[in-house]
Amino acid sequence: MSDIQFRFKLPLGRFELDTDGQFPAEGVTVLFGRSGSGKTSLLRCLAGLEQPRDAYLKVGGEIWHDTSRGLYVPSRQRAIGYVFQEGALFPQRRVINNLLYGYQRTPVAERTADFDQVVQLLGLQSLLQRFPMQLSGGEKQRVAIGRALLNSPRLLLMDEPLAALDRDHKKEILPFLERLHRHTHIPIVYVTHNFDELVRIADHLVLIEEGRILASGPLEEMLARVDLPISRDVDAGAVIDAQVLSHDEEFHLTRLKFAGGELLVTWVDRELGSDIRVRIHAKDVSLALEPAVSSSILNILPARVEEMQVHGRGRLLVKLDLNGVPLLARITRHSQHRLGLEVGSKLYAQVKGVAVLV
Amino acid sequence: MSDLLSSDDVSALLITLKLAGISTLILLLLGTPLAWWMARTRFRFKAVIEALVALPLVLPPTVLGFYLLVVMGPHGWIGGALQALGAPSLAFTFSGLVVGSVIYSLPFVVQPLQTAFSSIGERTLEAASTLRASPMDRFWSVVVPHARGGFITAITLGFAHTLGEFGVVLMIGGNIPGETQVLSIAIYDHVESLQYGQAHILSGGLLVFSFVLLFLVYRSNRSAALLQRRERS
Prior knowledge:
Chain A is of the alpha+beta class and 358 residues long. Chain A has eight helices and 21 strands. Chain A has helices at residues 39-47, 95-105, 115-121, 137-149, 167-183, 195-201, 219-223, 333-339; strands at residues 4-12, 15-23, 28-32, 54-59, 62-66, 71-72, 80-83, 155-159, 188-192, 204-209, 212-218, 237-248, 253-258, 261-266, 275-281, 285-288, 299-310, 315-322, 325-332, 346-351, 355-356. In chain A, a hairpin with a 2-residue loop joins strand 18 and strand 19. In chain A, helix 2 (95-105) runs parallel beside helix 4 (137-149) and helix 4 (137-149) packs parallel to helix 5. The relative contact order of chain A is 0.12. Chain B contains eleven helices and no strands. Chain A binds chain B through residues 47-49, 74-78, 80-82, 84, 86, 88-93, 101-102, 105-106, 133, 147-148, 151, and chain B through 121, 123-124, 126-134, 137, 141-142, 145-146, 148, 230-231.
């Protein structure tokens, strides 16, 4: 499938959704922005649930919407899966009949989803005979995701599927979403305003503010940019995709490998070679001109200063290059002065904390 | 049977059931799209339509009957037009009774349906759209199951209300035994001619029948309400 190209103009109360862009039709694209920024409206436009006065949408070589030519493919003919924030299950139908609603309406030749597989993937076996009112919030969302998947979608659209859930239920669903990501090849567009969800599941990030697309690009690149509003967040930091290299049983550690070197993290119960995403907060990275020999810090990596941006008074965000992999460090201007840092300086990044995400 | 009921009474009973049955059927066909529109529209003058539909609730049936008689009689614009086409005018015919009943019972069918339709979430319908359901498919697979209680109430009230109609029928249908004489008017006739025994049989029958019908509706609505309450908690 080629890219998803779109252009929508839709009035949204205080401002207007005015978007024009494209993103890859593979992996997980996250539409990220504050509540009311227009990200849900953009998702609804992709689904055909809104009628913008100006619209163009091309998915996988097919035109779904083009107001200039009076062309509009209704939602029911788009082969999409849509997961609503509240689940929107059919209350009068048992779980099994909710799941089969779209499946039964899909022509047999177009069915790509397998019922048993979806039930297993989302752990729905014990829920099949229940009614939606007998489900917890987390279970409802799992059923809603399963129902969307069984519609054999060519594009899966998810509108803050975890927003209505408390933290425990979020924890219950996230692994399913990550499995989904790995086991299906359906491109996913996912709306959220939650930073943690973003870094855990996104491959591609689209930043939305007041109805407009602020920036868009691969997650690693976007999180390593020092000029975007998200870089000012206390949680700002890079994500790195790595593989499990070895386990150290004595010290209960796992060694990960990525293009910029190796990382030691506390034991991760995963097979050798499996993919793992880690997140390194900018505030957890300090810089040194010499590698510290006697230090409690496990991860010290050679790096090069690529870009620096002043953030507030006396503070600095430094973008480092680790053999092509970006990393962010937050330091004081005093330190910059003391170390004599400038773009191109070679130094060592000392990583105090690595959060394993997947 | 013949000991209890005269042949006129039997035909009044049959005409009544036929009238209520046909009227209810037409009311469902007309009332469902009307109620759907009223539940979903943001039309500015919706209140005007709502008030018109509700009028039979407050108007004396004789007022309604009087206007219908004027319009449907040989000199009215509907009756006149029908006569010009070679058809009989609607006044004093069974068809005229059906027209009157449909208008008279309209709010009893439209209002429960409108309430039921309003309670269907927009998201649920959108979900069905994204799951390949056409508008007709959505109606049968999502709306009807959701509004089942509303339909039962609408059908029962429409039917029961037409059974008990008196004023409108008397004004536009007259009292032609075997053609337009319905139960309520037959009872009136019996009382007028002091045949209290006959009046008792018909009145008692109608009373018991109406009670049983309403009891069944309220019982089914109660279980639906309980179900919903359980859903909310």
